[in-house]
Amino acid sequence: MSQPLRVLLINYELPPIGAGAGNATAHIAACLAAVGVEVRVLTSSFGNLPAREVRDGYLILRAPAIRRNVDRCTPAEMLSFVLGAAPLAIGIGWTWRPDVVCAFFGVPCGPLALLLRALFRVPYLVSLRGGDVPGFMGRELAVLHRLALPAILSIWRQSEGLIANSPGLIALARRTWPAAPIELIPNGIDLEHFRPPDRRRPAHPLHLLSVGRLASQKGVIYLLRALAQTQSSACLRVLGDGPERARLERMANDLGLSRRVEFAGWAPREDLPRHYAWADAFVLPSLDEGMPNVVLEALACGLPVIGTDVAGTRDLVHSETGILVPPADSRALAAAIDRLASDGDLVTSFGTTSREAAAAYRWEAVADRYHRALARAARRAAPQPGVQRVMGGD
What we know:
Layout: E1 6-10, H1 20-34, E2 38-44, E3 52-55, E4 58-63, H2 75-95, E5 100-104, H3 106-120, E6 124-127, H4 138-157, E7 162-164, H5 167-176, E8 182-184, E9 207-211, H6 220-229, E10 235-239, H7 245-254, E11 261-265, H8 272-278, E12 281-284, H9 293-300, E13 305-308, E14 322-325, H10 330-341, H11 344-358, H12 363-381
Parallel strand pairs: 1-2, 1-5, 2-4, 5-6, 6-7, 7-8, 9-10, 9-12, 10-11, 12-13, 13-14
Antiparallel strand pairs: 3-4
Helix pairs in contact: 1-12, 2-3, 3-4, 6-10, 9-11
């Protein structure tokens, strides 16, 4: 009798901690469990979260780790996860023996997948997420990428393949390893959780929302400068926290925007829909992206998107769902804001098409592609003569 595929997902972040990749891991785990896959997720401990928890049909195992903030993690804290999770990973390999592993982020999670391969010959895939790819956020992460490059290449080359969530991320990864076997699987969206509100958009003044970690890579500094240059009275809510927050709040005050800009701080995922419902348009002024979950959320909520023409964002935003502008260009951002503020019919039209476009990214479809990729990897690595276990997925 065939047995279900056993899949171990490794991610140092899982809701309620972390951001887009943790959210992706949780949804993929739930969707895999729903179709009969045995799923375990190895992640970080935080606060009073239990060491073991069953959620949506899969088992969560939380390893001891140092982490101070719910929304972000330092390299040293990531290393603490690797050290704390290694004994748990060995125990999983010894007692449960997964058929295949998926490591979200080559660094820091890849070493744990490599450990399971070395000790138990468990094959693994690596899901690239952005910051773990050399060249991403070049100025901020250049030194870390240079130091980690030998480990990154070793992890990639000993895997059964890589997964990237955008064409831009594939191109970036191939600068490091031109022959890399990479499959494109986009991020997904929960269309029931994120949906348009009952009210008619836009309000007056135009309500702008930006969601993300407040770091230089997100480009919020250019959004504040743009708002100061607009002809309209549009107001902005910035949702998120991070190392740039204090500086950005001072800048908003210096630009005379204190009455037009609200820094709302970090919000748990269950609260996000009400912020999207408040907004008339979404703005993501990033300098780099992988494939931003926040843009998918905005599209699903029927919002027009003003985004920068960078990898990931340009794959989601087109001429019928929003406006793309060059990165680090406050004047172009200001013009895009004024265009939406002066044309309510355009806001409505963009929003309708945005919701339709989001339908192609349902989590069930994304998880099915992960299922197939994981099953293929397990079959390739399985001993051919006398195989007892039958892998599902294709």
